[in-house]
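Researcher: Can you fold this with zinc ion in place?
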Amino acid sequence: MTPVQALQKYFGYSAFRHDQEAIIRHVLNKKDVLALMPTGGGKSICYQLPAVMLEGLTIVISPLIALMKDQVDSLNVNGIPAAFLNSSQSTDEQIKLTTQLRNNQIKLLYLAPERLFANEGKLITFLKTLTVSLIAIDEAHCISHWGHDFRPEYLALANLKLEFLSIPVIALTATADKLTKKDILEKLNLKDPAIFISSFNRANITYNVAPKKNSFKQLLAFLDSKKEDSGIIYCLSRKSTESLAADLKEAGFSAEAYHAGLDNSIKARTQEAFLRDEVKIIVATIAFGMGINKSNVRYVVHVDMPKNIEGYYQETGRAGRDGLPSEAMLFYSPGDANKLKQFAMVEDNPDQSRIMLKKLDDMVRYCQLHACRRQFLLRYFDEDAANNCNSCDFCLTEFETFDGTLIAQKALSAVFRLKERFGATYVVDFLRGSKNEKIRAEHKELKTYGIGADISKNDWLRYLRELTGMGYLQVSDDAYPVLRLTAKSEAVLKGLEKVELVKSQIIEEHQPVTEEI
Ligand code: ADP
Ligand code: ZN
């Protein structure tokens, strides 16, 4: 049977999507694979199909027990023998499962990572007595400190490859930036892995960000044309999901709150009503959405700023799975950034805190971006993109501009004089000739010191962001990001290229949240 025949037979789908077929062929050839695919892209098939085609057992590592049960149920419905092992099972159930495994009656076994090496490795010793054909690691980004959802229990998976030397491993995730991806490959000890990255671009989603002033009024204006549509509104706190849902109801909308503190029965009912279009709006914390597959969500609103780009992208990605035009709207305020900064700083692990702050900084940068938002998001996930997508607020707005060539020259030469070793705040203080003792004595001697005193600090910060957006400057990828010149800078410095800057102040100003050097 070919993979596509098996797809039709076991899953009832007529064709593969994204890189599914290539991934499956690699796995069938016993090669290690890392697959990055957006949420809803169809990662599960990439190991479920090989599992039914290969002789023996496929072990699936998955972090969430609730999702495990759903997956196992739907496999069983398709006639594929699958089971999960978790602490909620009785001894009797476990004995029955062990027998089935011994008799080769199970094709897929789902496990939480912490189970694998528990009980002094009893389970792993048992699994090694079976014919294991494949190991799948779902949500593989959980193994990396650099990821947004690090789970220490995933670190144990580093030993998996050593225990099952010749068994292929497929690692899957919907979210990994550059560092996380590298970390996954290293930590899992994958052998000469094939890496598949499906495009993360969601062409049917329009991205919008607006400064938050009166968020309820802004929200009503946004919802005005969407009374018949389904949408998700994300809030930071449980309390605000409840009060906002109540306010929306009072304003005549069909809305319910959803957060992890609610009774399971209420959560299930709300989710069900939303899936059936009986409730139009879910006002939720980020607890809502995992594993929910509703295709006609027309918009996702963040009334509070998300903690990181990964989370934001997953949450907005819940809109428009049916491919129809959909909107992402984010209301941003410096106050939110400060609140999130406090949360990040109280993490008990200083390294973890630093990573969270860096991710928060990237999120702030996205909110303040003066360039195509889609391009920023795709580049964040290491994917190239054109600089005009025609479907984000930046690309759809016409800005009033002026000849900012002189301003650009001042900014670029300041970065040059400072040897490309300082962040935006320092560069601005330097340009404005700040008396601040933070400006080093040696820099006060430089020719460009103080040549921009006539422009306010906020305007300078905005110009630097615009120049970055246009590619005349770049922000380094370090924990303490610094401004650097680019290949495009020279033409401006030499007076060969004119630069247009935006006239009116359209974006609220805010300092980066991490200290800059
Ligand atoms: P992910 O884990 O990447 O978020 P899933 O594996 O849950 O995504 O797949 C998302 C949905 O797409 C599921 O309903 C799945 O059955 C469906 N799907 C997966 N592959 C295909 C395909 N080739 N054709 C049609 N539907 C598919
Ligand atoms: Zn754009």
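Model: Folded with zinc ion in place. Residues 372-374, 388-389, 392, 394-395 surround zinc ion (ligand 2) (CB under 6 Å).
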